[in-house]
Amino acid sequence: DFADQLTGYDACFYCAGISSVGMNEEKYTHITYTTTMAFAKTLLVQNPNLTFNFITGKSTDSSEKGKIMWARVKGKTENDLIKLGFKKRYNFRPALMVPTKGQKSIKPIFKIMVPLLKYLMPKLTITLKDLGRAMINVVSKDYPKQVLEVSDIKLAAK
Q: Going by C-beta distance under 8 Å and a sequence separation of 6 or more, which residues neighbour residue 114?
């Protein structure tokens, strides 16, 4: 019903998602895989030269055979998005997201833990601002990899 509203675009930043905590595989797959693929297929028909950016997460399982349910589902989603035939497609795998100045929806515990995590695991931390910049930059400048881990996201953000 919304296909006619999706024409005339050069890029899609698909950032929709949900935590798998408390969900069974069937429901998580419907939300994460089925909904994403339906949207992407509709978008591709309307915009064959579009670049599709998809947010997944660190430890996504591209083999689709691992023990962690959410990682398998995300891996299948990544794999099938790549097969669709978008002009360009990128899968972003952020890990620990450091709140950006002015960000409003931050849980109090995160405000306490983030400085510690940023210090202990600097290679896994990234800001929402850098993630956004990286997504914009790969659309406008390109990037040599389709799957961007945290280190790639940091490079693409520059």
A: 96, 98, 99, 125
Q: Which of 95, 87, 90, 3 is nearest to 49 (CA)?
A: 87
What value does the CA radius of gyration of the chain take, rounded to a whole number of Å? Answer: 16
Please list, in sequence order, all residues whose beta carbon lies within 8 angstroms of the beta carbon of residue 22, skipping any fewer than 6 positions away: none
pLDDT tens-digit series, residues 108-141: 777 777 777 778 888 888 988 999 999 999 999 9
Which residue type is seen at 30?
A: H
How far apart CA 142 and CA 132 sit, in angstroms, is 14
Report the distance separating Cα 125 and Cα 151, nearest Å.
9
What long-range pairs does 141-147 form, CB within 8 A, spacing at least 24?
A: 142/88, 143/90, 145/90, 146/82, 146/89, 146/90, 146/91, 147/62, 147/78, 147/90, 147/91, 147/93
Q: Which amino acid is located at 146 in the chain?
A: Q
User: Can you give the pTM of this predicted structure?
Assistant: 0.89
DSSP letter (8 states) at residue 67: S
CA separation for the pair 7, 129 (Å, rounded): 27
- Counting Cβ atoms within 10 Å, is residue 136 exposed (0-12), middle (13-18) or buried (19+)? middle
Count other C-beta atoms under 10 Å from residue 70's C-beta. 23
